[in-house]
Amino acid sequence: SVLDLTKQAPALKNCILGGGWDMAVAGPTADLDLAAFLVEESGRVAQVPNDVIFFNNMSAAGIRLEGDNRTGEGEGDDEAIIVELSKVPADVEKIAIAVTIHDAEIRRQNFGQVSNAFVRLVNHENGQEVLRFDLPEDYSTETAMVFGEVYRHNGEWKFRAIGQGYAGGLLSLCHQYGVNVA
User: Fold this and answer.
1) Tens digit of pLDDT for each residue in 2-53?
2) What are 111-151's pLDDT values in tens digits?
3) Which of 122, 115, 111, 116 is nearest to 150 (CA)?
């Protein structure tokens, strides 16, 4: 599903991409991490590592990751990425919003153990929720997920919900967007 942000929220200049989750099973809590990939028309990240926003690189032009909630405890957004749309470089066609499970292989965790996962887009100026995408709960082996994309089309910003899972954590997402990790 696609939402035209320019038409739906014409005053939208700065937005918060927030995500949250709960644990569906007893045991150690999963540490989910939001990440953003700034992707060019080629489908690849242009500048590595600058254009990959995650816990080790928390900001790029117009984009910054706020904090790192390691348990998912509490209500509302567990982590958030702030996007100043006017400051996103012109060569960035889309911002892929992803979430990964930190140390998933070591901890033997996956999205089958996570419930109530969501991503939402909020107008930073007035706190109004523009859209919310609840992740389906039919995953089992996936340790990384592309929730959705904020993308440009004919000069307008749109949001596309995706919900695509990957079994290889952050590394698999890096490969997906052309980031070579040594």
Assistant:
1) 888 888 888 888 999 988 888 777 777 778 889 999 999 999 997 877 899 9
2) 888 888 888 899 999 989 998 888 877 778 899 999 889 99
3) 122
Strands 94-101 and 79-84: unpaired
Instruction: Report residue 85: phi and psi, to 5°.
Output: -55, -40
Structure tokens at 141: 């082996």
Choose among 52, 65, 61, 58: nearest CA to 19. 65
Q: Which two tokens stand for residue 9?
A: 């929220």
- Which DSSP symbol is given to 48? T
CA dist list (Å): 118 to 19, 20, 106, 129:
5, 6, 24, 13
> Quick one: average pLDDT of 54-66?
89
Indicate the pTM of the whole model: 0.88
4-22 b/e (C-beta count within 10 Å ≥ 16 → b) = ebeeebeebeebbbbbbbe
Cis peptide before 49 (omega within 30 of 0): yes
- The strand pair at 79-84 and 32-39 is best described as unpaired
Tokens 């004919």 sit on residue: 154
